Amino acid sequence: MVNVAVLGYGTVGSGVVEVIEKNKDMVNKKSGQELNVKYILDLRDFPGDPYEDKVVHDFDTIVNDEEVQIICETMGGVGAAYAFTKSALEKGKSVCTSNKELVAKHGPELLQIARKNNCNYLFEASVGGGIPIIRPLNYSLTAERIEGINGILNGTTNYILSKMEMEGADFDTVLKEAQEKGYAERNPEADVEGHDACRKIAILSSLMMGKNVDSEKIYTEGITKVTADDFVYAKAAGKTVKLLGRSVAMGESEVLAMVAPFMIDKSHPLAMVNDVFNAVFVTGNMLGDSMYYGRGAGKLPTASAVVSDVVDCARHLGKVIMCFWDDADAKLADISELDRSFYVRVKASAKDAAVEMLGDDVLTVPGRDEDLVIFSKSMKEKEFAACCEKLGDAVLSKIRLY
Amino acid sequence: MVNVAVLGYGTVGSGVVEVIEKNKDMVNKKSGQELNVKYILDLRDFPGDPYEDKVVHDFDTIVNDEEVQIICETMGGVGAAYAFTKSALEKGKSVCTSNKELVAKHGPELLQIARKNNCNYLFEASVGGGIPIIRPLNYSLTAERIEGINGILNGTTNYILSKMEMEGADFDTVLKEAQEKGYAERNPEADVEGHDACRKIAILSSLMMGKNVDSEKIYTEGITKVTADDFVYAKAAGKTVKLLGRSVAMGESEVLAMVAPFMIDKSHPLAMVNDVFNAVFVTGNMLGDSMYYGRGAGKLPTASAVVSDVVDCARHLGKVIMCFWDDADAKLADISELDRSFYVRVKASAKDAAVEMLGDDVLTVPGRDEDLVIFSKSMKEKEFAACCEKLGDAVLSKIRLY
Predict the structure, then answer these.
(1) Cα separations (Å) of B48 from B9, B15, B51?
(2) Contact state of B141 with A308 under an 8 Å Cβ cutoff
(3) What part of A 244-303 touches B (C-beta under 8 Å)?
(4) Residue B129's pLDDT band (boundaries 50, 70, 90)?
(5) Closest CA to B402 of B314, B341, B361
(6) What is the mean pLDDT of residues A60-78?
């Protein structure tokens, strides 16, 4: 029997207990032994809960119990979660987490402590809750040189963009609706400004490079400036708009990483990823393109991912599972030097200046002549920014082309 | 250093050598040691080939060399490949294969021999060459009760159906073109009649059930009867036609498995899988839906999958990697008892009889009134077959609805 403790009895934590209980036969068979939830750490009590007798309020009870071998950290945050994780790993207890913030911030350090203490720090649930992506990157694509990763990594923003596309509604209206339905937080900034996606692409980029990619250095732009009109023009051009986390390996130790809305062809596999679904599109030098699709969040999908890590830890007690993510920092490439094309919507009055600077690939949409839409020629990000500055107020909207 | 032998220096075999060489640094790092291709078994000589000095003609040289620890079987077939695999495993040498026919036919026996001899029989490349799917099923979805698998599992037929959809061409024309381009075999039966997809869904179903699903008992129907007209009607209804391998767990030891063309909504993720790409759509009781997408075949994608197995074997020398696939047979459910709806195209003259038997969900397409298309009410497969028999020659085409 392997004893497990769950830190935080919120949505994901209670899901972890539920998955271990509901799929007991499967989980125990795959673990090669019985999993037993011995403790649940939470500040609250849960009178009437079937697991109320397992609830403790003091982490020391857990970390000092030699019978506890695996800990699920489903608390979130980088304060107590960091201290508890570190202390558990130092005692040789493996930790499985859904906490992307902590993984993005302290991943390499925690992995190193785990290695030193012959235990494991696993984080399948930290990126794309219901999408097995960390394990495929670590164990399946081992014969590949991964060249790039492009992902729809946030369920809230993908839900909002999908609704905007399908209903022609504007950002604020859809955000409000999403908040009412519980798909968006009361304070939606972490999602709509791209910070959540940024942490996830930082984790994926770090695994791709085998080096640390600092999430705080990644260029990040959210979806708040995307308008209903942009979707009208996107549709007319056979495209849609998605918030993408993107990462390209530029050699051994340099990486180009960013989060921003992109206009993408409807025929691209990422374009059909709608609502709260997420997907990670991986390009390898031998395999070519592959894609991993599933629910990006949600209680049970995320909990299932955490429990798959618990199973892996149970199978590898006392053994270190390979994960290449060194403490050495990868260099982040300067995105302003990148060449690409842009969708730009300008006031019709600025047509001549816009066409001269950006090119003459003008999109004509019947009944829409007040605005002018140009798909720009390929140019550096900084050149494009300079053009936009010259055009000033005439620029109504701009989105990078995928 | 780990010594590897490659059996069969054809497309996949030479790809394996190429991947090990080209991605040497990555492969060696992930293996934790250096991989060395010591032998290549082939009946032919390869004068001028950079690896010509490694070519041997006698399997005994390989199997009796104690330095060889891992063997890649990329010969195909179930004759010599079976004998060689068995004999290698009995000597404790791990075998990695792309040979779906052999895996589908003798998988559980070979897995058992591997277990007994503390080595491994791995087959990531046997299903969806460039799609990591075997390892996710075995290692990632370990907290899941997998309820169903639906896959586009054959590149040739998906290429043909995609072309028929996009170009409005008929089956024979596209098949001929595919043969000229090398996307279809001179003798295309194994692909177009669904036998290749059948072996793959047998392997996936066996892993889902943990029991043996006999490919020879799986109902299998190919794409030769799908017409250009069917795509016209599918499009009008917002659908397309895909050859699917399908499998549903009906409890602990019964499985419903089949291969057939299905008409599927264009909004389903499987509908956007075009050309030679494949995808496997997996439904778990906690995760919900997830999908794995990539190249279904091709020299380097398939070879990369074989080499990822070699890396796994190198990391686990002397240790058995978990794979639940018992020798016990899963019972195959009788598909004739299944309820579903069907697309049926009948001569307009049979309208009254068809509507009475199948329902009145008639599809009207402007300019097409010589045929009548009905999406039938839900009915058992055998009831539908009886209706079609009554309608006789009036039935021009029929395809199951997904």
Answers:
(1) 14, 17, 8
(2) yes
(3) 267, 269, 272-274, 284-295, 298, 300-301, 303
(4) confident
(5) B341
(6) 97
Cβ-contact A163, A91 below 8 angstroms: no
- What spatial distance separates the first Cα and last Cα of chain B, rounded to whole Å? 50
pLDDT of residue B369: 80
For residues A256 and B174, give the distance between their C-alpha atoms in angstroms, rounded to a whole number. Answer: 41
Chain B residues whose beta carbon lies within 8 Å of the beta carbon of residue A30: 142-143, 322, 324
Instruction: Determine the distance in angstroms separating the CA of B207 from the nearest CA of chain A, rounded to an integer.
Output: 12
**Res. A375 pLDDT band, cuts 50 70 90:** very high
Strand-pairing partners, residue A249, are A255
Catalytic status, residue A200? yes
Run of H or E including B247:
strand B239-249
Question: Tens digits of per-residue pLDDT, A146-156?
Answer: 999 999 999 99
Shortest Cα distance from B305 to chain A (angstroms)? 7
**B367 falls in which pLDDT band (50, 70, 90)?**
confident
Residues B289 and B151 sit within 8 Å (Cβ to Cβ): no
User: Using CA atoms, how far apart are residues A55 and A7, in angstroms rounded to an integer?
Assistant: 10
B321: closest chain A residue by CA: A315
Of the listed B105, B200, B239, B398, which one is catalytic?
B200
**Contact yes or no for A140 and B136 at CB 8 A:** yes
Report the alpha-carbon distance of residue A143 to residue B16 in Å, rounded: 10
Q: Which helix (H) or strand (E) holds A257?
A: strand A254-265
Amino acid letter at A180? E
How many C-beta neighbours within 10 Å does residue A266 have?
A: 14
Amino acid at A181: K
| Assigned token pair, B396 | 């021009």
CB within 8 Å: B143 and A29: no
Whether residues B139 and A141 touch (CB distance < 8 A) is answered with no
Exposure pattern of B263-278 as b/e (b: 16+ CB <10 Å)? Answer: bbeeebbbbbbbebbb
| Residue B148 Cα, gap to closest chain A Cα (Å) | 15
Kind and range of the H or E element at A248? strand A239-249
| Strand A35-41 relative to strand A55-56, pairing | parallel
What's the one-letter identity of residue B310?
V
Q: Which residue has the tokens 């992307």?
A: A100
Shortest distance between the Cα of A293 and any Cα of chain B, in A, equals 5
Q: What is the pLDDT of residue A129?
A: 86
Q: Does A130 touch chain B (CB under 8 A)?
A: yes
Q: Are B267 and A271 in contact (CB under 8 A)?
A: no
Q: What is the 3-state secondary structure (H, E, C) of B289-323?
A: EEEEEEECCCHHHHHHHHHHHHHHHHHCCCCCCCC
> From the candidates A286, A299, A317, which should be mutated to test the interface with B, based on the most B CB atoms within 10 A?
A286
Task: Give the pLDDT of residue A311.
Answer: 97
Choose among B143, B288, B304: nearest Cβ to A143.
Answer: B304
Q: How many CA atoms lie within 13 A of B111 on its CB side?
A: 22
* Position B370 confidence tier, pLDDT thresholds 50, 70, 90: confident
Nearest CB neighbour to B290, from listed A144, A294, A322: A294
Mean pLDDT across the stretch A186-191?
94
Nearest CA to A209 out of A252, A257, A151 is that of A252
Give the model's confidence band at B183: pLDDT under 50 very low, under 70 low, under 90 confident, else very high: confident
DSSP element (H, E) containing A311: helix A299-315
Instruction: Read off the tokens for B186.
Output: 């001179």
Measured CA to CA, the distance from residue A57 to residue A362 in angstroms comes to 63
Among residues A54, A200, A211, A242, the one annotated as catalytic is: A200
Q: Taking phi first (over 0 means left), then psi (-120 to 50 degrees means alpha), and beta for anything else, what does residue B194 get?
A: left
